[in-house]
Amino acid sequence: METKINVTNELLYDHSTKMFVQVRLSQDKRYYEKWTSKDKESWEISGTYKSIEEVIKAKEELINHNYQNLFKTITGI
Fold first, then answer.
1. Could you tell me which residues come within 8 angstroms of residue 18 by beta carbon, excluding any fewer than 6 positions away?
2. Which domain holds residue 60?
3. Looking at the DSSP assignment, which residues form a beta bridge with residue 34?
4. Tell me, what's the pLDDT at 4?
5. Residue 60 domain-assigned (yes or no)
6. Helix, strand or coil, per DSSP, at residue 21
7. Tell me, what's the pLDDT at 64?
8. Is residue 16 part of a domain?
9. Other residues' Cβ atoms within 10 Å of the Cβ of residue 24
10. 8: closest CA among 51, 46, 65, 37?
11. pLDDT tens per residue, the chain (77 residues)?
12. 44 lies in a domain?
């Protein structure tokens, strides 16, 4: 049985910028677009990625950064 993971259209929240982040496949399906929003209603493109590996790396960095911010908030460092 094969498990598929959808790394696009997943809504993330960047605690450092207080913005929602979503990555979508472009309409021509040649690259990925990074969309950001402060209110989940008005979205704008804030960057592009050439490969799914770049998307995964960017999402991992965002998640790690959020954990670091949470740790700093809890410990007061």
1. 38
2. 12-75
3. 23, 47
4. 53
5. yes
6. strand
7. 94
8. yes
9. 15
10. 51
11. 554 555 567 899 998 899 999 999 999 999 999 999 999 999 999 999 999 999 999 999 999 999 998 998 899 86
12. yes
User: What's the pTM?
Assistant: 0.76
- CA distances to 2, 21, 77 from 5, in Å: 10, 18, 35
**Could you tell me if residue 53 is inside a domain?**
yes
Number of folded domains that form the chain: 1
pLDDT at 2: 55
Rounded CA gap, 69 and 53, in Å?
24
Chain centroid, CA 23 distance in Å: 6
DSSP-assigned states of every residue in 10-27 = --EEETTTTEEEEEEE-T
**Structure token pair of residue 29:** 């399906």
Classify the phi-psi angles of 58: left when phi > 0, otherwise alpha if psi is within -120 to 50, otherwise beta: alpha
